[in-house]
Amino acid sequence: MYHPKKVGTLPVEGGDETKQTNEIGTFIPLLESIDIQGKDITADALLTQRKLASFVVDRKAHYHFTVKGNQATLKTDIALLFENRNKPDFVEITPPDHGRIETRRIWCSTALNEHLDFPHVGQVFLIERKTLYKSTGKITDDVALGVTSRTPEQASPQRILKVNRGHWTIENRCHYVIDWNFDEDHSRIRTGHGPENITRLRRFACGVIQFVSKGKSSISQKMQQLNRNTRLVFDYLRMTSNSTRTRSL
To answer: Would the pLDDT of 42 be above 50?
Structure first.
């Protein structure tokens, strides 16, 4: 079950007060201030909501949503459609970057367009990801379901796969990094401005580490290095009188 976290505040209409809200509550106010016409709006399963889908299409944009357990009927219908899938509509194999080879297969269909209880469905899709880790030989499999308002004429399987991959590139660089390194999703900070303040501090810390590392190591690797040698932290932040000003992390 997905539990939306309190991520910010919104003004209360007719007064100077504000109210706390989560990712779902900030979706529409955020996009209202942006020209999204003709754009693809991607979102993970938490934001796969009928109201949000209708809002995106009403703004003459297109949604590209992941489908999971919070939309149980939608998930079941799509999974059942692709249960006996045959040859994929498109296959993509990425180079062995970072010691792994990824193979992505995608199946798309319009068969459920008239039957799903979800607005403006153009097609549904299933993406199968297989990753081979060269150093260990380990193979992992992952299956993702999704729905988009773009029709086959507007988006080929190759394009849908590209949009999906672009979404997870952002997710992995931002939210996944925070959750993996700081375990944010299990944080017990829930009241007041605490959630907003602590997530800003986490992102600030990640930004500092990324800037100093200059892409030579991951945030996880750099955090492990700093945990083993806290003197590096003191030197970089110049927290002692004898800190080495030119020392690099």
So the answer is: yes
Q: Which pair of tokens denotes residue 48? A: 């796969």
Q: Tokens in use for 25?
A: 């509550």
Tokens 């501090």 -> residue: 201
Q: How many helices (H) and strands (E) does the chain have?
A: 8, 8
> What is the average per-residue pLDDT within 216-243?
73
The answer for residues whose C-beta is within 8 angstroms of residue 239's C-beta and 6 or more apart is 233
DSSP code for 175: I
- Nearest partner of 56 among 92, 28, 77, 75, judged by Cα: 28
**CA–CA separation, 149 and 49 (whole Å):** 13
- Between CA 51 and CA 49 the distance in angstroms is 6
Q: Residue 180 is which amino acid?
A: W
For residue 27, give Cα distances in angstroms to 39, 51, 144.
15, 10, 22
Per the structure block, which two tokens stand in for 78? Answer: 């799509």
Distance of CA 70 to the CA centre of its chain: 16
- Per the CB < 8 A criterion, the answer to whether 112 and 180 are in contact is no
Residues near 144 by Cβ (< 8 Å), separated by ≥ 6? Answer: 66, 126, 127, 129, 164
**DSSP letters of 193-208?**
THHHHHHHHHHHHHHH
Residue in 102, 83, 81 with CA at minimum distance from that of residue 147: 81
More confident site: 193 or 216: 193
Burial of 42 (0-12, 13-18, 19+ CB in 10 A): buried
Residue type, 120: H
